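Anyone? Bumping this.
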Amino acid sequence: MQAVVFYVGSERFAIDTQSVAEVIPGIAARPVPSAPEGLRGVIEYRGLVVPVLDLCRLFGRGDCPPRLANRILICDLSNSGARWGVGTHDRPMLGILAENVTRVTTLDPDAQGSHPSPTKASGLGRILRDKDGLVQLVQVRDLIPPETLATVVRAAGSEPV
Amino acid sequence: MNLRHLRFRQRFFLLGFLVLAGFVALLLVAGGLLERVMVNGTLYEEIAEDKDLVADLLPPPHYLVEPFLLCYRIAANPQERDELLGALEAELAAYKASRDRWRASEKDSALKASLAAASEEGDRFVAIAERFIRSAQQSDDAAMARLLADELPHAFRAHKARVAAAITQVEGQISAMQDEAASAVVRGKSLSVGIAVSVLLLIFALGYFVMRPFVNSLGTIGARMKQLSEAEADLTARIEIESRDEVGELAESFNDFVARIAALVHAVRRSSVQLTSTSTEMAATSREQQATVANFGSSASQIAASVHQISATGTELMATMDEVRGLAAHSASLATTGRSNLDAMRTTMGQLTDSSSSISSRLAVINTKTDDISSVVTAITKVADQTNLLSVNAAIEAEKAGEYGRGFLVVAQEIRRLADQTAAATLDIGETVAEMETAVSAGVMEMDKFGDHVRRSVRVVGEVGTQLAEIIEQVEGISGRFEGVSEGMRSQAQGADQINDAMRSLNDTVQTTVTSLREVASVAEDLRSAANALNQELGKFRLEG
């Protein structure tokens, strides 16, 4: 399987390319008042209002430092594997702000990997190995609780403007 | 008009005028007398005597003697008749002329009457003579004889008698006139004598009038003069003359003169008193001065000794001053060398400052260039980033394309690798540039610091140079002053010597002065005695009361 590799702090993480619609530059998100923990704000993506999560915050590392290689991974929550660039309100989108999103690596999904995260809800999956070292998979749907996610996605609208 | 108030000149003029008037009167009287008796003076008598003589010699024209005789000769001489007739006619003509003249000139009536009678007889004789002439011309001798015998002598005699009567009358008249003239002379003489006597009297009276006040005044003045010239000269007395003539003026002038002399004597007396006191003072002062001058001589000797000491001290001091001056000159030369070294140093430092400034500016240029490089690196980095993003998205899409995207995935991976390399290279460049920038900044800072140091050093060096210059100046000034002091010392030594000489000559002078003062004292004594004598003499003048 192919996965997009990124960093939070010095640790490497990866998200399956199947759930990633597109990687866009780390543009500034408009903050949302009284937003839940980890929501950085909303951005406009191809006519849609897409909420953006800050992984650094989520992982308890404070705000993500502004870096040139910070990028937003537009993820397809429906995980339908639809074509590039298409988003409707049937397919809710979620932006994830991550550091140093510079490469796509090939992972063996069948290899044995530890699963050190205590809860599934943290969104952290197995830790696998590629040619650069260890990398922990991140399950987008599990990053925040489903109600919160639904609230966020609904609040954002994820609808054509 | 008061005669006393006439001036002497006027009086003399008056007198002279009176004398002149008297003389004129005398002259007039005498002249009238002379005019009156002019025909009867001694000179006239002489002339008359001559005339009488002539009259005696010549027949008077009124006498017709000559024609009568000619008639006789004509009758007697028939040969010469013509010639004699001519003479007779001439005689008759002369008679006629004389008769006419007398008739015209004679004034006395009585004489004129007698003369007219004579002329009448004469005319008759002339008529007869003319008849005789006619007879003679006709040679009528009978008629001639008749006429000669009777008529001619008759007429002649009648005429002669008449003439004699006239002459007698004239003589009587003349003697009467002589008597009259004599009496006129006597009268004139007595009148002249009277006038002369009266004029003389008048002159005497006037002279008395004129001279009396003059003589009186002169007498007064003379008395005053005598009074003045005698032993007790009274300068207070004045002449009192009221007249306003020359003598009055003279008296007034004399009074003024005496007053002036009195003032002068007064002043002289005052001055002589003053002179006496002054001469006394002078004698005393000269005695005091003698004592003072003697003291002065001893003081001068002491001063000479002191001056000698001063001279010796000054010489020592001068030697010391010379040493000090040499040291100061050495210091000045050292300071001058130091200053020139400092100048060289300052020049070098100036060059250093310039160089550091140049380096700073070049470093600034390098900084600018590195900034440019940084921007280029940033651009490259951005491009690399974009390329990387593109490769990631390409990989995602290739994965989504499944089996068909495998090849594309490889391409995407290659692209990503290239982008990674580019990013790495740009990172290196960026780091290098950053290091360079840091280095350059540090260099610039260092250069700035260095420049500041150099500038401060230059300032310090300048201050040191200024101080050195001041030191040199002061040292030079000191050496100049030393020269002045040495000069002063030298002149002081000379001055001391001169003072010594002067003291010596002063001592001599003091001796001379003592002698002179003694002489002055004796002279003052003489002067005082002379002033006393003068005072005594002046005491003889009475000035008051």
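Late reply, but here is one note on the structure posted above: Helices of chain B lie at 8-37, 42-57, 65-76, 81-105, 109-137, 141-229, 246-400, 406-538.
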